[in-house]
Amino acid sequence: AKAYGVPPAMNIFVESKNDIDHVLKNLSKIPHSQSYRKKDIPERYHYKNSERIGDILLVFEPGYEILRDPRYGGKKYDLSLTHGNHGYDNRHDSMKAIFYATGPQLKQNFTLDNSSTLHNVDLFGLMCLLLNIDKCPPSNGSLENIKSFFIEPSRVANMNRSLQQTTIDFVIYSIALLGIVLIAVMAIVWSAISLRSMFAIRNSSRNNPAKNTQHNQYEFSPINRQNLSSQVDHAQV
């Protein structure tokens, strides 16, 4: 097995899928850690729908990490000293960041209450609003989480409407593009079938012209012969 990642969390790729259970069993013996199969990684991690994620994810509790070689930048760690790291479960308070902002569009002396939540991905929408970007592309962030920062919260509502219109336009353009592609594909397929049939008829004519000529001759049925004879006799009379 091969492991990649940072000390608090490692992606482990096994050589054979049959080895996963054995590797998991051995990893379970490591204290202050949790191991997950790729399919069992918690959804809140948003971390398993990629081929770059290992067969097993090993995550350590805050305050613990795994080191192949206790060195960084060519210098050996002094393990007797206290040091920090990042990359642990973001539910822990120690993993939360501090956000400061100031500007003419933002409230002064405002602090987000503890019941509210601000995620890193929410900052994308905040930057779009501060830079007056009207057509801000959709993201995984929530504009509602940054609404309380603004002196004029209505700007967030306007941005929401703009995002909704952008999404509708995208869907319409996608459907139109899909329709054009389908028409083009059908035209190509129909042209290919027509050309194939034309070449088949041409080759058949070249291979057996007598048969083709005979096939194209008009054959009278007994009724047609009788009607034709009656018309000829009447004309002679």
TrEMBL record:
SUPFAM superfamilies assigned to the protein according to its UniProt record, in alphabetical order: Alkaline phosphatase-like
Keywords: Membrane, Transmembrane, Transmembrane helix
Keyword Membrane: yes
InterPro entries reported for this sequence: Alkaline_phosphatase_core_sf, Phosphodiest/P_Trfase
Top-level taxonomic group: Eukaryota
Pfam families: Phosphodiest
TM region positions: 170-193
A GO term, aspect molecular function: hydrolase activity
Gene3D superfamilies listed in its UniProt record: Alkaline Phosphatase, subunit A
Transmembrane in keyword set: yes
Protein name: Uncharacterized protein
